[in-house]
Amino acid sequence: MDVAALADRLRDEAERANERRLLVLAGDRDAGIDAAYTALDAAGIPDDDVTIVTSREGFRFERYAPTHASNLLGRTRKAVVLDAHEKFSPNALGQVVGAVDGGGLLVLLTPPLDEWPDRREWFDDHLSVPPFDADDVGVRFRRRLVGTLSEHPGVAVVDVDSGTVERDGLTDPWPARPHDSPVRPANATFPEAVYDACLTGDQAETVRALEVLRDPGHAVVVEADRGRGKSSAAGIAAGALAAAGKDVLVTAPAFRSAREVFVRAAAVVDALDCRADDGDRSGENRVETTTGGRVRFAAPVDAAEVLGGGEDADSPDVVLVDEAAALPVRLLSNFLDAAAVGFFTTVRGYEGAGRGFSVRFRDRLDESESEVSNGTLAEPIRYAPGDPLEIWAFRALLLDARPPVDQLVEDATPDSVEYRAFDADDLLADEHLLRELFGLLVLAHYRTEPNDLARILDAPNLSVRALLHDGRVVSVALLAREGGLSDSTRRRMYEGQRVAGNMIPDVLTSQLRDEGAAVPVGYRVLRIATHHAARSRGLGSRLLAEVRDEFGERVDWLGVGYGATPELLSFWRENGYRTVHLSTTRNDTSGEYSAVMLNPLSESGRALAERHSRWFRERAIGVLSDPLGDADADVVRATLRATDAGPDPTFSAHEWRVVVGASYGPGLYVAAPEAFRRLALAHLVDGGADLSPREERLLVRKALQARSWGTVADELDYVSTGQCMRALGAAFRPLVDRYGAGESVVAEERERFSDSS
Q: Which of 500, 475, 489 is nearest to 137 (CA)?
């Protein structure tokens, strides 16, 4: 059997079962491309239904470069050709798999399979961060990937150099069972045409559940694996709500993730004959209706800002959050301010981990004022249940990896666990362990992706540490070696060149102008995760303590960088980490400012941490009144408290008179605001005086961030600006007593106002 005959049979079998098949064309690249043309022609797939993902140009098909494979997310194609000869990555594979429709083919062009794992490729360069080079990168991920290609049903392998069919991939499946025609659910109130747009009973029931979003005070969570029509259900509901006159705001990590929402919303509005003809009928990112409703898109951070606008006329009636699992909890929490909100999340697939969304966010959702309901989509829409390509992708990329079931670890305590250091060979040899460990990382962090699996297995700068309870992974830390860079590399970094894989030295060197920051060697905690069934018991702290004890003075520091929240800042501070930097721009995805913290282990590590902690305190007043003027007051409080305490502030006699006069007498804050800022900073760093959280927020908002009196009074619930002014003076009295003790001018001024009262 040749390539043409095999492709014809694979396509026939895929169409009969409404499944997908994978055709691997292994060998010379040009021969593989020729064989792909032959296979697609024989399979009868029109050029308009084919996309090729390759670094080469000049094809008759739609083409994307491998670095732009994400353009296929949310789309469906009858065939996708992925050229793995150049710029191949696990992410690209994960992005294209879901785009193949039922009855279609994924064609994978690879080097000879017995040679592929040991070849040095573009992704190896991506993993070989300084001071390592490509020869230090492992080959375990590709070895494991090749192994799955030789084991799974529905995967055909052809040696294009010899023309030999090594595996035909044929499964002789049963014919596909047609979808049951969905019917309009009982008690549904959306028009009949809305439910005519649904493809499965699951989808119709989900749209029925979304009807409650017409009324304020409701939240709906919809979970599904990839390919179940989740975004389509969101779009159908969005169109119906817009037709009813509602303003629907759709948000997602990227517009491409939500494209299907707008396609389906536009189709529903057209079916209901209420599309506003504004000259743009594309339905790309906005749908207007003659009833005054609309469906519009905003990026997550922008959507959160719209909701924070209070009485702003642009505030929507309904917010739909697509791919919610790909967003951090703190940003998701902003959407609870919406009048009505729907969260749509992928349980298993490239886009995210829905169960992680449930575990990390569901408590906040349940504690909100919204009435919460749920929907689940189980039946695949674009291909049949048990599709071989989906099963293979889940295995090859660990898209369905899960941590241990709750019952196996729910009794874990810091005293019951065992600390383990795993090397990549350990993980490759134990698939069960690898799945538990990777599943816990996926569950706990919104950014874990297929590339991270390759990093864990092959990146020379990464290390894995874990706590095991009865042999089950209950807590895991992923560590990245940083620093220890050569003179030339440090020079390039200082002059502005990005040096991959060295985030903390890069920030301290290029942004904070410390050319010696990349000399000490440290380990940055990239990820740390504890099983949700055993949280809040000190396991994360136990793991960090074990890491510190293991590394001792073999390295100079441990560090971390993350989107700053009060809770996380407190956790890291309690574990010995100290703030050395707070970014001056927000992360585009999370909307948070990023904190960098160090835990020194050696003398050179302590010198690094001490000087950057000092520099951070010295620049805090300037950055908090300008680029960080909108930072959350509790984030600022926690960030400053997590620095090493500095020396007591020094003031001139005149400055003390102004400060004491404004605190105890008729003096004015505006007479010497700089002195008040230094005094506020000193307290927020060392917490030496007894102030309430509200009083500390007042210090942040007025003294450090220089907000207007009216803004501060409104935010902190003072009845008037006058009361807010008096409260600020009262808040400074304990600071005057604490930091002015022993100053004769302070005693004299305070006694004068005491006598006059």
A: 500
Check if 3-167 and 406-641 are the same fold: no
Separation in Å, CA 594 to CA 111, 274, 329, 442, 565: 41, 45, 15, 21, 9
- Per-residue pLDDT band for 415 (boundaries 50, 70, 90) equals very high
pLDDT, one tens digit per residue, over 8-46 is 999 999 999 999 999 999 999 999 999 999 999 999 999
Are 641 and 708 in contact by the 8 Å Cβ rule? The answer is no
CATH number of 406-641: 3.40.630.30
Write the class of the CATH domain 192-377. alpha beta
Q: Which residues contact 88 (CB under 8 A, 6 or more apart)?
A: 66, 82, 121, 122, 123
According to CATH, what is the number of the domain 3-167? 3.40.50.11040
How many helices (H) and strands (E) in the chain? 29, 21
Residue 179 confidence (pLDDT): 65
Tens digits of residue pLDDT in 164-176: 999 999 999 988 7
Burial class from Cβ neighbours inside 10 Å (0-12, 13-18, 19+) for residue 607 reads middle
Calculate Rg over the CA atoms of the chain.
29
Cα–Cα dist 266/286, whole Å: 9
Closest CA to 21 of 168, 161, 160: 168
Relative to beta strand 557-563, strand 578-586 is unpaired
147: Cα within 13 Å, side-chain hemisphere: 12
DSSP secondary structure letter of residue 550? H
Q: Where are the domains of the chain?
A: 3-167, 192-377, 406-641, 653-756
Distance in angstroms (rounded) separating the CA atoms of residues 326 and 341:
17
